[in-house]
Amino acid sequence: MTAARRAAVVGANRIPFGRVGGAYASVGNLEMLTAALEGLVARFSLQGERLGEVSAGAVLKHSRDFNLARDAVLGSSLRPDTPAHDVQRACATSLEALWGVSNKIALGQIDAGVAAGVDSASDAPVVVTDRLRAVLSRVARARTIAERARALLALRPADLVPVASGTADRHTGLSMGEHQSLTNRRWGITRQAQDEFALASHRRLAAAYEDGLFDDLMTPLGGLTRDEPLRLDTSLERLAALPTVFGAPPDATVTAGNATPLSDGAAAVLLASDEWAAARGLPVLAHVVDLEAAAVDYTGGAEGLLMGGAYAVPRLLARHGLNLADLDLVEVHEAFAGTVLTTLAAWADADFCRTRAGVADALGEVDRSRLNVAGSSLATGHPFAATGARIVGTLAALLARRGGGRGLVSVCTAGGQAVALLLEA
Asked: Are residues 339 and 324 in contact, defined by beta-carbon separation less than 8 angstroms?
């Protein structure tokens, strides 16, 4: 085992993200993940290469996809003996995958690997009723036609109706949007501030496309060449006209326009040692410096469900003697516009940082000209497990364009968790 070294972000690839029921309505997780992976292989001429590891995952996952990462490898042009495994940490799944692969590179256990994520809201698993499942189990165990018939005759029409997929948290009974509405109220985040932030996300993503940022980060699929949720024609007036969909008046401020749309998509990041990249003449966009995970107690209302980043980031930066002023670019996942705004407010609050996050002082204000500069989840969409890889690929490319610097990623997740990542170029 060699001395610790930093894993390099060599590059990334994703497919354009689609709206639920849109361009990828009939495309499953395996096809999307394989497309993102194969696009990465093609971009960096990795056909026939054996990588040390491919780590990937999905949040909405069929039982048939129990070996999703390995199946994607076998459907790609990588050497078939490339190891692969599945991982999951809700919306930070591909960041968790990156954490594992980069640590293996840092320890000298592997020289190169891929971290990826995929999700299809269009192809979410259908859940059957408990009664139907029990009857089907009895049918499978039956030894005669008569036994099968008796088991099936026990079914009632209501048993055949699929169980609707719920968005409510099992501990609180509230949806993410309802949780975010409560957090918005606690921090005094207005509807107008959320709409303005959402509008900026769409405008910045549109500008990034025009600037060619994604030319080396994206592989078209199914005729889609740009993120389907992107709205070029949106305006503050249109956003302000949308009805609220979460929370109760007069505190309801979350709308379909300032919340991330349900989406389909996949993204992948190529990680390697500097030596492995140099031997193949491949670029190094940035290096993985460190990561931090956090979890909050949201079940009793002590903290907001999506406030994990407000804790993970201060701890990560404190470990390196940094604050927000030391960062050149900051990427905060836009689960809701309010998620970003409440997190920013917490970082600027000295009492919160000292008494809750456990650091010496406030992190300070984030320069908005350095925040989510190419747009983010409100405009791209949010295929849960793919978002971390999308953000890392975009941030690494932006840092390389700048000629260097430090970049921060913060991704909140279901279950009151978050993962933060520090990149340096």
From this structure: no
The residues that bridge with 55 in the sheet, in sequence order, are 85, 115
Judge contact between 13 and 76, C-beta under 8 A.
Answer: no
**pLDDT, position 126:** 85
- Among residues 222, 246, 276, 220, which one has the least CA distance to residue 105? 276
pTM over 0.90: yes
Q: Which is catalytic among the residues 202, 333, 353, 412?
A: 412
Instruction: Look up 202 and say whether it is catalytic.
Output: no
Q: Is 353 a catalytic residue?
A: no
Tell me which of 91, 179, 202, 333 is the catalytic residue: 91
For residue 126, the SS3 value is: coil
- From the list 202, 287, 333, 382, the catalytic residue is 382
Phi, psi at 402, each rounded to 5°:
-75, -15
> What is the helix, strand, coil percentage profile of the chain, to 5?
40, 20, 40
Residue 39 to residues 44, 270, 353, 383, Cα–Cα distance (Å):
9, 11, 42, 18
91 is catalytic: yes
Cis peptide before 249 (omega within 30 of 0): no
Token duo for residue 352 = 């919160």
Please give the pLDDT value at position 154. Answer: 87
Query: What does pLDDT average to in each consecutive run of 10 residues of the chain (425 residues)?
Result: 82 98 96 98 98 97 96 98 98 98 97 98 89 90 92 88 79 94 96 98 98 97 97 96 88 94 97 98 97 96 95 97 96 98 98 95 95 98 98 98 98 97 98
